[in-house]
């Protein structure tokens, strides 16, 4: 079968791999669309320490069930549109013991710690197959990254009437904006790009702030009547935005961290104490987050066309990734159609 493989930094090619065979408790899926995500870009640029090259990227998936192995429970049918839960969990670490399997100490995400599914076929345990109803395979590839943003809102325990500041309006940040708005929060979207901020408004943000051209602190104070944001969700992963999150959160507020900063971050730790902050990490997503995204997309209000920047075939994946690396701020999602 055909597959896309990152061989070395800046080197990607189409290779032939053996088609997998379905076993007991497993489902064979025909992969239709796979999204490139930030971890794939970092792998391509040689900045992902968790990856051992060569690797098949891809864990944002739209697929169709091709074959069902023995011992798979009722509810899975050939031809069903599905997405995949791309994470593993060991069942034994502290996170698993506490029911937070998304944060498993020994997690292996498809396309990161193990080969992904940017290939024509894949076999997974039935527990990792998520039926998506009438959502098209193309749009199914948007479910996983949005679920990461949905999960961050759950980690922040967002409720109605709270001010929620989302820093970064990429795909994951957009997911956080959607779910916070669905919960009745007043969402403030912050980004460097006016086009992304305009989309954030259409996705549910009540206010937008361009951190490149506006004074973020004065705008947040103005919007929140001097209190600051009840919840700040950091979805960029830079020292500047981490410090911004702590500066702009209200006293007794919550900061939720999704992005990884690639270098050390210097904080005024007095704010941790003076504001009595809750600072929380948010990793991956839980099955409930996937279901919430699917329910949202089934409602038909998600502007999916605006979230898909480009659809490429495997032979053009290198060109698409190179273009993204050159101008990352202008890309929401690049999909590869297999």
UniProtKB/TrEMBL annotation:
Kindly give the InterPro entries that the UniProt entry links to this protein.
Answer: ADH-like_C, ADH-like_N, GroES-like_sf, NAD(P)-bd_dom_sf
Q: What domain of life does the UniProt record list for this protein's source?
A: Bacteria
Alcohol dehydrogenase-like N-terminal domain spans which residues? 23-132
All residue ranges annotated as the Alcohol dehydrogenase-like C-terminal domain in the record: 172-297
Q: Does the keyword Metal-binding apply?
A: yes
- TM ranges are none
Ordered alphabetically, the record's keywords are: Metal-binding, Oxidoreductase, Zinc
Names of the cofactor(s): Zn(2+)
Query: What Gene Ontology molecular-function terms does this entry list?
Result: metal ion binding; oxidoreductase activity
Q: What class of enzyme is it?
A: oxidoreductase
Q: Which PANTHER family match?
A: D-GULOSIDE 3-DEHYDROGENASE, NAD-DEPENDENT ALCOHOL DEHYDROGENASE
Please give the family membership noted in the entry.
Belongs to the zinc-containing alcohol dehydrogenase family.
Name the record gives this protein: Putative zinc-type alcohol dehydrogenase-like protein YjmD
Which species is the source of this protein? Bacteroides cellulosilyticus
């Amino acid at each position: 079968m055909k597959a896309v493989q990152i061989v070395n930094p800046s080197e990607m090619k189409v290779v032939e791999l053996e088609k997998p065979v379905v076993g007991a408790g497993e489902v064979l899926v025909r992969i239709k669309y796979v999204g490139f995500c930030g971890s794939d870009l970092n792998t391509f640029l040689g900045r992902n320490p968790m990856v051992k090259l060569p690797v098949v990227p891809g864990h944002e998936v739209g697929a169709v069930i091709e074959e069902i192995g023995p011992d798979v429970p009722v509810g899975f049918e050939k031809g069903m549109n599905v997405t995949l839960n791309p994470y593993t969990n060991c069942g034994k670490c502290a996170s698993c013991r506490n029911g937070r399997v998304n944060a498993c100490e020994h997690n292996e995400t498809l396309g990161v710690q193990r080969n992904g599914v940017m290939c024509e076929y894949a076999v997974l345990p039935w527990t990792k197959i998520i039926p998506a109803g009438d959502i098209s395979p193309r749009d199914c590839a948007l479910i996983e990254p949005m679920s990461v943003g949905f999960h961050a809102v759950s980690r922040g325990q967002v409720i109605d009437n709270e001010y929620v500041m989302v820093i970064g309006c990429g795909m994951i940040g957009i997911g956080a904006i959607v779910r916070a708005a669905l919960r009745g929060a007043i969402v403030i979207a912050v980004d460097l790009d006016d086009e992304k901020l305009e989309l954030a408004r259409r996705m549910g943000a009540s206010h937008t702030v361009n951190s490149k051209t506006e004074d973020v602190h004065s705008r947040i104070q103005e919007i929140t009547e001097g209190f600051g944001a009840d919840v700040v969700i950091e979805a960029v992963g830079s020292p500047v935005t981490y410090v911004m999150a702590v500066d702009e959160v209200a006293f007794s507020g919550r900061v939720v961290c999704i992005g990884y900063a690639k270098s050390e971050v210097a904080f005024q730790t007095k704010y941790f104490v003076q504001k009595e902050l809750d600072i929380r990490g948010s990793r991956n997503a839980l099955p409930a987050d996937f279901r919430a995204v699917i329910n949202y997309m089934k409602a038909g209000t998600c502007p999916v066309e605006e979230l898909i920047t480009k659809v490429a075939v495997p032979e053009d994946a290198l060109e698409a990734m190179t273009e993204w690396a050159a101008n990352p701020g202008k890309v929401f999602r690049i999909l590869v159609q297999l």
